[in-house]
Amino acid sequence: MNVTDAVRERFSVRAYLDKPVNKDTVYKLLDIARFSPSGHNAQPWEVAVVTGKAKEQLSEKLIDAVNTKIERKYDYSYSTKDVPLFIKERKDACNIKVFKHKNINPKTDKEKLKEHILENFRCFGAPVCLIISRDKKLGEDAFVDIGLFAQTIMLTALEFGLATCPQTSIVAYAKLLHDELNIPDDKIIVMSLTLGYPDMNAHINKLRMDRDTVDKFTTFYE
Question: Taking the model in full, what pTM does it have?
Answer without folding.
Answer: 0.95
